[in-house]
Amino acid sequence: GAVVSQHPSWVICKSGTSVKIECRSLDFQATTMFWYRQFPKQSLMLMATSNEGSKATYEQGVEKDKFLINHASLTLSTLTVTSAHPEDSSFYICSATIWEGEPEQYFGPGTRLTVT
Amino acid sequence: DAKTTQPTSMDCAEGRAANLPCNHSTISGNEYVYWYRQIHSQGPQYIIHGLKNNETNEMASLIITEDRKSSTLILPHATLRDTAVYYCIHTYSGGYQKVTFGTGTKLQVIP
Lengths: 116, 111
Known about the structure:
Radius of gyration of chain A: 14 Å
Order of helices and strands of chain B: EEEEEEEEE
Order of helices and strands of chain A: EEEEEEEEEEE
Structural class of chain A: mainly beta
Strand content of chain A: over 45%
Largest interface: A-B, 27 and 22 residues
Number of helices of chain A: 0
Number of strands of chain B: 9
Structural class of chain B: mainly beta
Oligomer: heterodimer
Radius of gyration of chain B: 13 Å
Helix content of chain B: under 10%
Largest sheet of chain A: 7 strands, mixed
Shape of chain A: globular
């Protein structure tokens, strides 16, 4: 199946700093990628829809100025957590849709963010 | 939001079939049923999807009721590596497939 990668797989940063997470579709082009956040023992929560060449669409309650999303190419979307705080510590997962007759959504391995 | 209802947890003996039910009574006519699973601390993995007919692939089988209000994912011979949280969702095949995850079923395969 299609492969989606994320980098880094885990990151520790100090409170107040910013951290960038990359999501890449390795063997296909993705005009749309999604970003999710998952807290321990909870389900995935959709944060935003990332569209190549345009602004991201954020879900209700997600601060767009805090979670900056850039989708500059058909294979790369980035999520930047600005001025991170300990409550931003979470598992961040991206996904991309591939069209093979019918759409299938493939997920990245996730990035574990810990803010100290 | 597309809502589904799944049991919180299930156990299955290794080597036996695991049958995971899902209710999706609000599904629309052009929405597909998708199943994903998430092994601890990994990204979700696509398993199977279907519209009306039953589907089978190398991982699992999907049985969809005639009224499409519920479905069952079948893992024919569960192994310890199948221990995971299984998510059932329904979403449009068109557009960009915005996905809303429910709480899923924690499947524990027992030796």
